[in-house]
Design goal:
By secondary structure, this protein is an all-alpha fold. It folds into 2 domains: about 100 residues; about 325 residues, ABC transporter involved in vitamin B12 uptake, BtuC, CATH 1.10.3470. The protein contains 18 helices and 2 strands. The protein has a two-stranded antiparallel sheet with strand order 1-2. Helix 2 crosses helix 5 and helix 9 runs antiparallel to helix 15. It is globular and about 90 Å long.
Length: about 425
């Protein structure tokens, strides 16, 4: 009896194995074959890109030669020639890398950029479902909605480069929005926050909110740099305390704790107005975001402050030995972030048309997520302005696309959560591979 049962079980296992091999097994083998074909095809594309660059780069004499210029010779060149030579060296390195491209390089590229591929796939789905999504008005609305988010992302992006984070971002923005709204109400508005306040110049509240936000952010930087408290805990405590302070201020107005509206038309026009650029109506918010992007690019890439920021974020001990003041750099990065939070709150109040103690809630999550998706690494010392721009645009496009399709807001939270976790996982993988 035992032998017959054993033979029966062996027969069942054989049948199950055959069913697996001729159903799921074949399917998996087919998928594996398709993936290999895709990888081989992409590898040829990358190699072809290298060959195309080589053909276009007429100054290259040989395929693997890199343009070399001595430091002395480069110093004697003018600015334009130096830019040209540096561009040639970058192209030469790119040609060499792509001509030696392997299938493993393709696999690493797909893994490291999987989040971008998925997001682009979601965007294509939206476009297929609603072709009207590809229109000038939609693109302009996306850029307008991204403008304030981008400014805030630059603020927290510098802190992330320092291996930190800032959970008080939303409350700083909310406080700046409340102050701006309370100081820039229309003189004939019935429920004014300050009944007898005269009409102020538009620049004055902006300076005030920048100073206030920079002050609280500087305290965060001081606590993190001097007392060595983890940025997560330091800014979490600051967020709670700041919410109490802004709520007290919000409730201290003459009408009591109610949303602040009725803004001065000059303020609304300054923020939500449009500029006529060659017959095209360009929202002013986009212009402000473009100016801030340019200034941040210069600050991060062309100043001693930016170099110190990356050095401290990459290796604080090595930066300290090299003569960089870690405490000073950390506090300055937080101050710059505070200034951007103040500017963001000033613009946000006019954009949405009112302000309350709930303004800015969870803004820090969107800003941090956009930075991580854009490649600004929590490992420190890694991040580009272009990455922050890409991350903000991607999240805005996803949100706008979901609304365009009429999907419930809960689906947006689910997709955003998955993207954030995936982005952090990929970022961690890159760091582990490098170490």
């Amino acid at each position: 009896m035992n032998n017959s049962k054993l033979e029966h079980l062996v027969g069942i296992k054989k049948i199950a194995f055959l069913m697996y091999m001729y159903s799921i097994g074949l399917l998996l083998k087919g998928l594996k074959m398709i993936v290999r074909i895709i990888i081989r095809g992409l590898t040829k594309v990358f190699k072809g890109y290298g060959a195309l660059l080589l053909w276009l780069a007429f100054w290259q004499k040989e395929a693997t030669d890199e343009v070399t210029v001595t430091a002395e010779a480069e110093a004697e060149m003018n600015i334009f020639k130096r830019m040209v030579e540096r561009y040639k060296r970058r192209v030469a390195r790119r040609i060499l890398r792509h001509r030696q491209w392997k299938e493993q390089d393709t696999i690493n590229f797909l893994i490291n950029n999987a989040i971008y591929i998925v997001i682009l796939g979601l965007i294509l789905v939206v476009i297929i479902q609603e072709p009207k999504f590809l229109s000038v008005n939609v693109f302009r609305n996306i850029l307008t909605q991204s403008s304030v988010r981008l400014i805030l992302a630059f603020g927290v992006g510098g802190i992330i480069i320092l291996q930190g984070t800032d959970l008080s971002l939303g409350r700083s923005v909310g406080f700046a929005a409340i102050i701006s709204a309370s100081l820039l109400q229309s003189p004939d508005y019935a429920s004014r926050f300050y009944t007898n306040l005269p009409q102020l110049p538009l620049i004055l509240p902006l300076i005030i909110v920048m100073i206030v936000a920079a002050f609280f952010s500087a305290i965060n930087g001081f606590v993190v740099a001097v007392f060595k408290i983890h940025p997560f805990l330091a800014t979490l405590g600051a967020s709670v305390a700041l919410f109490g302070i802004l709520s007290m201020y919000f409730a201290s107005g003459d009408p009591g704790p109610q949303p602040i509206g009725g803004f001065d038309t000059r303020y609304v026009q300054l923020v939500t107005g449009q500029l006529n650029v060659f017959g095209f109506q360009l929202p002013k918010l986009i212009v402000y975001a473009a100016i801030v992007t340019f200034l941040i690019w210069i600050l991060w890439n062309k100043t001693t402050f930016g170099k110190n920021m990356y050095a401290v974020g990459g290796n604080p001990e090595a930066a300290k030995i090299s003569g960089v003041s870690v405490v000073k750099t950390t506090i300055l990065v937080y101050i710059v972030a505070g200034v951007l939070y103040g500017l963001g709150g000033y613009l946000e109040a006019a954009r949405i048309g009112s302000a309350s103690n709930g303004t800015g809630f969870n803004y820090e999550l969107d800003a941090i997520a956009a930075c991580v998706v854009g490649g600004i690494s929590f490992s420190g010392g890694i991040g580009k302005v272009s990455g922050a721009v890409a991350g903000v645009l991607m999240f805005t496009i996803i949100s706008y696309g979901m609304n365009f399709l009429g999907l419930d807001v809960f689906y947006q939270y689910i997709i955003k959560g998955v993207i954030i976790v995936a982005a952090v996982a990929l970022d961690t993988r890159k760091y582990l591979v490098k170490t």
